[in-house]
Write a structure and sequence with these properties.
By secondary structure, the protein is α/β, with parallel strands linked by helices. Helix content is 40%, strand content 18%. It has one domain (7-215): P-loop containing nucleotide triphosphate hydrolases (Rossmann fold), CATH 3.40.50.300. It has helices at 2-27, 42-53, 70-77, 95-102, 146-149, 151-155, 175-185, 202-214; strands at residues 30-36, 59-65, 82-86, 112-116, 133-139, 159-163, 191-193. It binds magnesium ion and zinc ion.
């Protein structure tokens, strides 16, 4: 019984995700779902992307967190329209929560919507939010074995961003190893290396996102 329930929840989620995507397409909004574990640097990466894209694309952000609004406050401080979702314990966002958050935004003022998912490499993989692109962020301090240990999220992503590369000299993280694993799981997904606080590598990622937007 439990297995059937879980399957039907996912099916309902997929249907809602399709509707979210239709909504984005109708409004000319390109949507990115950013996933990664807690502390991998998603919000700092968002800040960097905003600094690069602000001249060309109107950005909005949905922040998914179990509690609090620290990340939303950081985006708000930059003048980015932001909606905070508090999942109150749930360890991922779903398409229904996304739809509720999107209803709070005026999509006519948005070109690029980035959803920062709850920090989690596990069940975020199973929930389509209606995004056009899924980007998985992995900190150089987290270990290069994560694609092997959490394959679903890497397999289901359109790009891998290795963050905190300025920390590489202090770790045994192997760029070739994670790149090979990503290549095996998602052959078409590019791999980016960024040090977001220093804005290293982030212009290239911003450029790629903007390019992907033009393809839709
Ligand atoms: Mg964050
Ligand atoms: Zn979850």
């Amino acid at each position: 019984m439990k297995l059937i329930a879980a399957k039907s929840i996912l099916k309902a989620n997929d249907q809602l995700a399709v509707e979210n995507r239709q909504r984005f397409d109708a409004a000319g909004v390109f949507c990115v779902n950013m996933v990664g574990s807690p502390g991998c640097g998603k919000t700092t990466l968002l800040e960097a992307l905003f600094s690069h894209l602000r001249g060309s694309l109107r950005l909005a952000v949905i922040e998914g967190d179990i509690a609090g609004s620290i990340d939303a406050e950081r985006m708000e401080a930059l003048g980015v329209p932001v909606v905070q979702i508090n999942t109150e314990g749930a360890c991922h966002l779903d398409a229904n929560m996304t739809a509720s958050a999107v209803a709070q935004l005026d999509l006519t003022d948005v070109d690029l919507l980035i959803i920062e998912n709850v920090g989690n490499l596990v069940c975020t993989a199973g929930f389509d939010l209606g995004e056009h692109l899924r980007i998985v962020v992995l900190g150089a301090t987290e270990g290069d074995d994560k694609a092997v240990k959490y394959p679903a999220i890497f397999q289901g992503s359109n790009a891998l961003v290795i963050s905190k590369t300025d920390m590489l000299p202090y770790t045994n993280f192997s760029i070739p190893r994670i790149t090979a694993d990503m290549k095996r799981l998602a052959p078409d997904a590019p791999v980016f290396q960024v040090a977001a606080l220093k804005r290293e590598g982030t212009p290239k990622l911003a450029e790629w996102i903007a390019e992907e937007k033009t393809k839709r």
